[in-house]
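Box 3.1 A note on notation
Throughout this textbook, protein chains are presented in two layers. The first layer is the amino acid sequence; the second is a token string describing backbone geometry. Keep the layers aligned when reading.
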Amino acid sequence: MSVIINYKTSSVKKKLSNLILFIDEKFNISSLKEYLSNSEYSFISDLIKTKDLKKKILSFDINSKRKIILVSIKKNNKSSDIENLGAKFFDLFKDLKQNEYNLNSDSLSNNLRNFIGYFLHGLKLKSYKFEKYKTKKNKSNIIIVVTGKNKLTSQEQIKFKAIEEGTFYTRDLVSEPGNVLHPDEYAKRLNLLKKYGLKIKVYDEKKLKKLGMNTLLGVGQGSIRGSYLVTMEWNGLKDKSKPLAFVGKGVCFDTGGISLKPAKFMEDMTYDMAGSAVVVGLMKSLALRKAKINAVGVVGLVENMPGGNAQRPGDIVKSYSGKTVEILNTDAEGRLVLADALTYTEEKFKPKFIVDLATLTGAIIVSLGSEYAGLFSNDDKLSKQLINAGEEVEEKVWRMPLNKNFDKLIDSKNADMQNINYVGGAGSTTAAQFLQRFILNKTPWAHLDIAGMAFSKYGGALNSGGATGYGVRLLNKLIEDNYE
């Protein structure tokens, strides 16, 4: 079921179609007289006495062809409250037979800017389904015609649509199975983003070897697929100002390599590339809405397989930074991909800041469940901006500790460092501490461990289960509030 939204300037006519009206939280319908016929007003006045007014949405069947839906609005709503209300509204559609609705924005007395935009944004986000591989698809459409004066400008419509498309693209990528979206295919798809105005550069294995990106290459060497680093640049400013940089882990499938994972739930490891998908979705959003910033997205794309040429526990590799790493566990692979990507991003683009995203550790799920992403950072200002942006869009982050005292847990006797903490404990922090060693020039940096947020078996406020697209809206908000 998909949602199509049309904007019309004409006023709504009585009995023209199914009608959506907004009302106060006490369901005082006297304000709706001008939108209803006398008989409809009397009918609803009688029936509303029998309804549960604790519900935020009430539906009334006037006859077999006409339905009137009342959406109650409390005072002092945040934008996220309105989005969640829109998502609840979509849930109502699943039980309704009619498919065309007239949303009258003039019935809205709430003064929150872009109320209609946030409401429909939440509805659209909740409507997403990944049905690409189903032979029988739900082809029904819900058409919402928005009338009245309280509508969005064309620019506001573009912004919401851009964020939706970026989020959906992220969800699409995460939802793809590993046999389809392997690194070779992923790199090809990213090349197609040039049509949106992004500058794309793909580094294949030959180029990566020449650059010395051996920690990234080591992860993918057991696979028959290639390994890649892809950069995506958006230049929304005419000046040469430093870009904002976003780096993502793109392990298209993670078996754990020689340190093989248990079979149970290994199928979920198709989403071990979610960090990269967030970066890709964000860059697409920025291009679609013509964001007035310079930004770069960098993703490392690999497949971690236990082949005859796979990396072994005990191997020592030299990273792009020149630092050496002893591989004690091949299932701690995401940090190896990010290590080279982070140093390269800092050196090549000299950004204002770097935010990396990765489904990095199971330990962060033990710590924070599926409510917060773990935030690790060397910069208080950037951390605060991320926390505030997360609260605004309900893609929350919780700051976790970094401290030099953790370094002893990843120091190696045989190399500059080892890729896991064998003592045990602080798994997410030692992983972040490892990544911090590859930020060489004190660039403000934040690491988001999104292992508990990228995928949901049960669904959430703005998604119906599966890939969530977590991070696209968070980073868009970070940019919009602080850098545009």
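The chain has a mean pLDDT of 93. The longest helix spans residues 154-175.
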